[in-house]
Amino acid sequence: MKKSGRLFGIIALTVIMVLGMTACPDVSNGADPITIEVSSTDIDGNTYHLTITENLQFKLTITLVHGPTRISSGTAAAGSGNEWSLTPASGEVFTVVISAAGGTQSLISITGTITFTDSIADPPSMEAPGELNDDDNDDDTCDTGTGYNGPPIEMVYIQGGTFTMGSPPVEQWRLPNEGPQRLVTLDAFFMGIYPVTQEQYMAVMGFNPSHYDGGEGREPAHGEVQERRPVERVSWYDTLVFANRLSIMEGLCPAYSINNSTNPDDWGPVPTSLWDSAWDAVVIVSGSNGYRLPTEAQWEYACRGIHSPEAMFSNGATYNANAVDPLSDLQDKITGTVWFEFNSDNKTHEVGKLMVTWWGLYDMNGNVSEWCWDWEGDYPDHAETNPTGPSTGTMRINRGGHYAQTPAGSRIASRASYYPFLNTGISLGFRLVRPIIE
pTM of the full predicted structure? Predict the structure, then answer.
């Protein structure tokens, strides 16, 4: 949601509750435009009504996000495009249906209700450094940052909720480790809009480990920016160092503690050939607000968005066994969403080039697989709240598939794992999350 001027708009889609607020007084023609972003991955073309019920005089600007592009409003006449100038009479209800061509339908209609208010409850701020008790952290790295000068780690607010984790028993290409399905409840969190890029990694660590570094035979696709390709060839251990160093640079309380220290300078060299008992015993500091890897449950919840447990990809696509050519049919459905073997030219791509998900995330399926916090292990057969996976293991989870994967390995529920000390995966990267600290 975007804000402009003294009025605010709240969009309530089918899964978001409208906040109860006091209505604004009437405003004049000179009021600033109200900008509202409507996001949807509703490829079924279901139509809902967007209504305006307040006695206001204003210019309403709608920005539609659908598919890989943001279709911003222009100067079209009222009712004929994405921008309308409306002057409702007292008590009058205006219905505006926002439509765009795309997907598998000739016309897709987006939905919601607009309520105009004096103020709204924004998602929690990520700006203020957190505070820890002295018992939790002795490193004094929460107060002042050393300065991060790289491209910002853009994040989006993921509203907490309950979802069905895992794949249905009948899902095409399902593996036994994707079940049993169970209900998982998660608190809200912030998640990186993109995987960590090469320029971001370089700004924190001082080097770029990536195989696809722009050298001969490893160049970016035409028109893409090399530095904005996702970093890869990073081990799970490497991500701990990156997350804490970035947190320290930004004046946040680092999440990870090894041998009772949150300062990576105290951890010693990153292990690269075998497991390390100290690094494997890493703990998350209670109350810390710094960057960290998502749990496997957070990753799947964010990737699935509003889609049902039957959805196989972040755009809601499923496998149609009745199609003339089911595999080609599925490839056509996901080519605009997933970098995989069919469309990637066997290399990574600049982040953010394909379809945005319900939560406003990019590259959740394909491009590079993404490290998660959890050890590999079987799912329990009961509901959980904020699960963090097994307490021990030999390999750490990664999710999402990558540029050389088949559709089977790029599904929402597909699980993969890798040794935490290996930094040889040229298709394995990561994205970051941050908690909500009350």
Answer: 0.73
